[in-house]
Inverse folding.
């Protein structure tokens, strides 16, 4: 999973952050499946 620089993550809008977290969770599930 790509680790974004924290300052980039902090500049996301709430919607973007939520979408990014959803994507991250999906990737984690697939990798651990």
């Amino acid at each position: 999973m790509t680790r974004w620089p924290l300052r980039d993550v902090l500049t996301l809008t709430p919607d973007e952050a939520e979408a990014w977290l959803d994507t991250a969770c999906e990737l984690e599930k697939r990798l651990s499946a």
The longest helix spans residues 14-32. The chain is about 75% helix and 0% strand. Helices lie at 6-10, 14-32. The chain has a mean pLDDT of 83.
